[in-house]
Each structure stands twice: as C-alpha cells, then as structure tokens.
C-alpha cells in the first residue's frame, strides 16, 4: 500500500504558490461593468485630477475665510453678494474682499474664495448683502482639485480584482474599458463507481453526485468559470481521458474522490503520469482533507480532493479559494473572518490542523461559535454551518470560552 507523504498545510500552500498564478492567461479588454470581479492585467494611472475643479461641499456662500473671522451670532459679518455659481457651469464671478458668492453642493468654487459658509450660518439681507454668523477656516467645506485622485498616480495596481468602488474610480477618470485577465477556467470531475447524477435514482450502494455542485458553486463564487466534466468510473483509461480533456480546456482541474489509499484509488496514478513536474504532495496534515493530492503538468494544475463532501469543500476553501480569488494566501481582506467565543470544548489530535464547522449565534458579548455535529460525509453539516474554525497543528483542542476566528463561507 502506498503511504502518504503527508505535508503540513503551510507546506502544501508553499508548494502550490510555487506554481500559482499559472502562466498563460489571456488578457481581454472589457467595458467597465463587464469587468466587475475581474483581475486587472495592467495598472491604471489617472490621466485627470478628480475632482477636476475645486468644488463646494455645502450649499452656502463662497467667501474669503479671513473676512469671516470674528463673526458671531450677535455680531455677524456683512458681506456683499456678488453673484452665484450655477451647477455644472464655470464660475464666472470672482470673490473679492468683503464679498460672497452663492454656491451649491458640488458647484465650482469661484476664484478668490477659499472657504464656504454653509447657508444655515447666514441670512440674506436686503440690497444684495448677506450676514455671516459664524467664522470659517480656509479650506472649509470645499474639496480641492485633485484631492480625491491626483493625475499621474496609479489608482489600481495590476492584479487587483475590481470591486464596485473600483469601477467608480475608473468611471470618475473616464476609463470605460479596462484590460483584465480572462477568468480562471476550472474543470470539475467527480470520480467513483458509486456516484450517479443527481437526477438519477440511486440503486443499492449508489449515491448522488454532490461534489460537482458544491465545487462548481465555490468556483463561481470566486469569479472563476466552472465546467462540469461528469462522473468518471474507477477505470484508468476513462479517468485519464477525461482528465486530459478537462486539462486541455481549463487552467485548473478539480477531482473529487479516489484520492485515498484504497485499492481502487486511481487518481494518484493518473496524476503521476500527466507530465512534469508531477505530484507536488499527496496527503496534508489536515482534518478533514488528509487525502488531498496536488499535481502540476506543464502550465496546468490538478487538485484531487477527498470524496467526502465536507472534506472537498473545506479543502477548497482553505487551499484553492484564496488562490482563485486573490492570487495568494496572504491577502488580508480575503480572510473574511469574524471573532467569536467558542460555545463548547472541541478536541483535536496534535500533528494535524483541524477545521471544525461552526454556526454563529448572538452571544452576550458578540458572536458565539457553536460547533456543528456530523462527520465529513455529511453535507447537511455544511448547510447548518456559517464558517470554519481552525485548531492549530500542535493543539489538543480548544476550550469552551476560547476567542476564535471564524472564517465565513
Ligand atoms: N484506510 C484509510 N481509509 C481512509 C482514509 C485513510 O487515510 N486511510 N482516509 C479517509 C478520509 S479522511 C477520507 S476524506 C476518505 C476520502 O477518500 P477518497 O478521496 O478516496 O474518496 P472516495 O473513497 O472516493 O469517497 C469517500 C466518500 O465520499 C463519497 N463521495 C465521493 N465522491 C462523491 C461525490 N461526488 N458526491 C457525493 N459523495 C461522494 C463516496 O461515495 C465515499 O462515501 O477516505 C477515508 N478512508
Ligand atoms: O480527512 Mo477526510 O478528508 O476526514 O474527511
């Protein structure tokens, strides 16, 4: 029987990042909205200042701040109303000493003014005069040209995944087409003689395919493309042919099942024969997920995930999702964790990293992480869970009341 060369999770990640990102992704130019969730292939540099002109951020009067010094409720400063700046038009009037010009939120600041007095601090008097009841500081209630984005600066680096706010800054700069990478294409193949499609009625010993659907869902949530390659029986030739087809059409292929040490477990045999550099690891000090196998053949990567539905999902979440979604394991915003208090003691075996499923509940001082019962074959335990809690490699468990980080699904 083949023995696993079990690596730690850290080692497995290190091995995968040697090859990730895989080379050869095409660049495509897309209109702004279509680029949401895509990864920029090139940095974007601002050609213009945003805002393109200094503008008021309150409805009121553009003034010279110094003119308002000393203004009080009981002793207003009286300024001459020199005109107004209409929205969306250039400021045609200049603010001279002792003068005020009416502005609205977003209108262009007239030359000569260095602050805005909000309308609530003023009163219009007869004969084109305005009383100011409060002093303003220079720069008050305006945004200077280029204060948001300065022309010439890099607003978004290459490799950045575009979020709604990123589309916003691009729109503000007049960038309506961006160069992004094609999405990662991920082929998904279930294996096992006992696995049947979900629309079929299982005979004795048969089970419906869960993993194709959980994995495809996880892949799509990462913004990648998922294609199902059906169910391969435990047959060397058939399995090899399906994997090869999936590899041609995708960057990454995910298999589930057949990664353990059983006599019919062909996956490793097939992966070993696909090309160089070959198998990166077979076995991770992880629970669930120990029989995970990874290989690289040329510029393609193949992950053999455990057959148990929970294990396949957990391994995807901790090993693959960060790469597909953020290109690395150390993207801080990618962690998506919440702090919670563990509701009961959980045990673990030192020497492997344990991932337990937890449900979040409202506790007295924040979230409570309640471990969800059920083994790694039970998909319903994932349905009940909101996230995962890691028990570190050398710990024997975590006691009730421990502050834990819950990685949300
Ligand atoms: N002697 C040992 N036995 C096992 C070990 C071990 O180290 N030594 N590891 C156990 C662990 S842990 C896991 S996890 C499983 C994983 O085994 P495989 O990856 O080889 O998966 P299979 O044996 O093919 O399947 C396991 C289980 O999952 C069901 N399955 C598989 N694919 C699907 C699918 N697409 N949809 C739904 N369910 C699926 C399959 O029917 C089995 O019940 O091995 C342990 N054994
Ligand atoms: O480690 Mo297996 O992947 O328990 O379920």
From TrEMBL:
SUPFAM superfamilies: MoeA C-terminal domain-like (SSF63867), MoeA N-terminal region -like (SSF63882), Molybdenum cofactor biosynthesis proteins (SSF53218). CDD domains: MoeA. The keyword Iron-sulfur does not apply. It holds the Pfam family MoeA_N. Gene3D superfamilies: MoaB/Mog-like domain, MoeA, C-terminal, domain IV, Molybdopterin biosynthesis moea protein, domain 2, Molybdopterin biosynthesis moea protein, domain 3. GO terms for biological process: Mo-molybdopterin cofactor biosynthetic process. It catalyses: adenylyl-molybdopterin + molybdate = Mo-molybdopterin + AMP + H(+). Pathway: Cofactor biosynthesis; molybdopterin biosynthesis. Catalyzes the insertion of molybdate into adenylated molybdopterin with the concomitant release of AMP. This is Molybdopterin molybdenumtransferase. The lineage of its organism: Bacteria, Bacillati, Bacillota, Clostridia, Neomoorellales.
């Amino acid at each position: 029987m083949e023995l696993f060369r079990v690596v730690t999770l850290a080692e497995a990640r290190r091995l995968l990042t040697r090859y990730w990102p895989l080379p050869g992704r095409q660049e495509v130019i897309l209109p702004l909205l279509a680029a949401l969730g895509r990864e920029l292939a090139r940095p974007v540099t601002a050609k213009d200042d945003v805002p393109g002109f200094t503008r008021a951020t309150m409805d009121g009067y553009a003034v010279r701040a110094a003119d308002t010094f000393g203004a009080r409720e009981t002793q207003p400063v009286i300024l001459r109303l020199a005109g107004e700046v209409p929205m969306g038009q250039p400021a045609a009037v200049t603010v001279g000493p002792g003068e005020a010009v009416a502005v609205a939120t977003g209108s262009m600041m007239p030359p000569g003014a260095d602050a805005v007095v909000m309308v609530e601090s003023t009163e219009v008097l007869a004969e084109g005069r305005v009383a100011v009841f409060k002093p303003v500081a220079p720069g008050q209630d305006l945004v200077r040209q280029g204060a948001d984005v300065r022309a010439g600066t890099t607003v978004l680096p290459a490799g950045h995944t575009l979020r709604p706010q990123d589309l916003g800054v691009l729109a503000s700069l007049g960038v309506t087409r961006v160069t992004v990478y094609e999405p990662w294409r991920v082929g998904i193949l279930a294996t096992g003689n006992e696995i049947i499609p979900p629309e079929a009625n299982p005979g004795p010993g048969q089970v419906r395919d869960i993993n194709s659907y959980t994995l495809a869902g996880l892949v799509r949530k990462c913004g990648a493309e998922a294609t199902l390659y059906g169910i391969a029986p435990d047959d060397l030739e058939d399995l090899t042919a399906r994997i090869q087809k999936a590899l041609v059409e995708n960057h990454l292929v995910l298999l589930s099942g057949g990664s353990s040490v059983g006599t019919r477990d062909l996956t490793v045999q097939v992966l070993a024969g696909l090309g160089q550099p070959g198998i990166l690891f077979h076995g991770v000090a992880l629970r669930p997920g120990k029989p995970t196998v990874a290989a690289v053949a040329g510029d393609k990567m193949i992950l053999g995930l455990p057959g148990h539905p929970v294990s396949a999902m957990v391994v995807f979440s901790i090993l693959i999702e960060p790469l597909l979604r953020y290109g690395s394991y150390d993207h801080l915003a990618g962690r998506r964790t919440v702090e919670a208090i563990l509701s009961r003691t959980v045990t673990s075996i030192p020497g492997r990293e344990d991932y337990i499923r937890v449900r979040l509940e409202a506790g007295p001082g924040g979230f409570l992480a309640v471990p969800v019962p059920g083994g790694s074959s039970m998909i319903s335990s994932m349905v009940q869970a909101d996230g995962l809690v890691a028990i570190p490699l050398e710990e024997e468990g975590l006691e009730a009341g421990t502050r834990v980080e819950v990685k949300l699904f």
